[in-house]
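#dry-run=false #mode=assembly
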Amino acid sequence: MCGIVGYIGPRDATPIILNGLKRLEYRGYDSAGLAVLQAGKIEVRRDAGKLSRLTELVQETPVSGSPGIGHTRWATHGAPNARNAHPHLGSTKRVVVVHNGIVENFLELRDELTAEGVKFSSETDTETIVHLVEHHIASGLDLTEAARRTFLQIQGAHGIVLLSADEPDKIVCARIGNAGGVVIGLGEGENFIASDIPAILEHTRRVIFLESRQMAVVTRDTVQVETLDGMAIQPQVHSVAWDAVSAEKGEYRHFMQKEIHEQVRSLTDTLAGRVDFNAGRIRLPELNLTPGLARKIEKIYLTACGTAAYAGMVGKILIEKIARIPCALEIGSEFRYSDPIIDENTIVLAISQSGETADTLAAMEEGRKKGTRLWSIVNAIGSQAMRIADGYISMQTGPEIGVASTKAFTAPLVDLYMLAVLLADLRGGIDEKTRRALVADLRLIPALAGKVLSRDAEIEKIAYTLKDIRDCLYLGRGINMPIAYEGALKLKEISYIHAEGYPAGEMKHGPIALIDENMPVVCLAPKDPWHEKMISQIQQAKARGGMVIAVATEGDELVASLADHVLWVPETPWMLSPVVTVIPLQMLAYHIAAIRGLDVDQPRNLAKSVTVE
Ligand code: G6P
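#status=ok
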């Protein structure tokens, strides 16, 4: 889950790599480095810490030339220090590598290389790659063939980029398994390589995605793609619609703040082209869903990780309620161990912002193995989860950079709602009036989100009163129960305050023991079918001296009279209410973390896309 950038062409690679890494820093930020071919020699600059440290280093000891490769790291093997930072040079200092993934057989390979006299200068698994390549070059192979031989020797999932001072006209890269993507950006007389599209968007929108077990030899003017076994591939060139501007912070202090406030637009975009308000119908063409298939479906397994899994929990409720199809939500990392009972009438529906989360992809693979149909709801265009699915829904929210997911949570909620209505319609399980009413409700959503966002200053004020808390409990019921989980996740991720989400009805079976004046309790109590139950929950928390922060529907005097603070939301049809109730919780978490002076976009130990299991 590291970020990779490469450049070959007439320009100086250094600023291109630094800029590209800046856009990928969300993928990992323990250390960063670059390697550039300067006057026939590979010059490496790398250090522990964030990218700003690498930028300083390059200012202190400049380097320029082409080709060049760069890396921002999320440590797996070896501490995040300068020695372990990528790129890694081989013993001859003529070959250099950056890598995303884990060489699973690295101990064995390192022992073999050490026995041959190779000296390792880091604790990383990555270093084995460059030594193996050098070993094969020493036996007479060129860079491409030496790289191929190496790719076949290493186990695990990888994105790898290599260059050699002795073959300065090329960069060799490969993708093996699901350690994250390798994207080749096509320019005029220059080419780019990256782990993710945002790194190269300012240069080109024409891209090639490497599939698993494919490698490419990239020169200034050509891109030659082959399988690791040497079979030539005619790659498909994709046009990416995202523009570089949408990956900029603009007037906002943090990407997370920008992305929270983008939700009016992202929700509008999510609906665009999908909803026919006149006919009261939904269209999701990329899902390839026919009435025949819709009628055959007996069960849907939703699978995802992190925030996306909480979207899946809401999705389960929506699909069961609207389409009456039994659903199960299985966390991505558990799916394949649960020996799921699936067949050709089961759908495995993966939800993923990045489309590259290793555990989610592993769940999809398990589904594939068992002969089921795969669907995905994905944000990153061209990502693995999109490509391997039989049908997909694209989130249409544009790039999300902040590590804590916000707009890529609300978009799939709407996608899942639309999917539920479409399934119900195609199965003939919904009367026209109900269908039209459900579709019409979608029209309200962007404006309702906008109403919550306009309360930013109020929410910031409440955040000031909570900035020093040590724990926080979030309670919700029914369709807003997953929002309690998501609210707690947002707070813990970026403010490092211990926070727990709980089904409100379970409070009396344990968490109530924790409630006293030091335990704030966030209660999701909008006007939904569980409103009265939540009122009694608030009363119970108050009776134990807890401070209650309620998410309540505008005008709800009863909740206002009971709670210490209220996060107001506009009245919303209950099946869409999670889209609206989560936003004040995103804003609350954001403000608390920003007031505490924390690095909101790059919280410690986390990464945006987790491409390791
Ligand atoms: C990481 C991110 C989370 C995200 C999760 C799943 O943990 O920090 O924000 O929800 O991965 O990512 P995905 O890209 O599959 O939605």
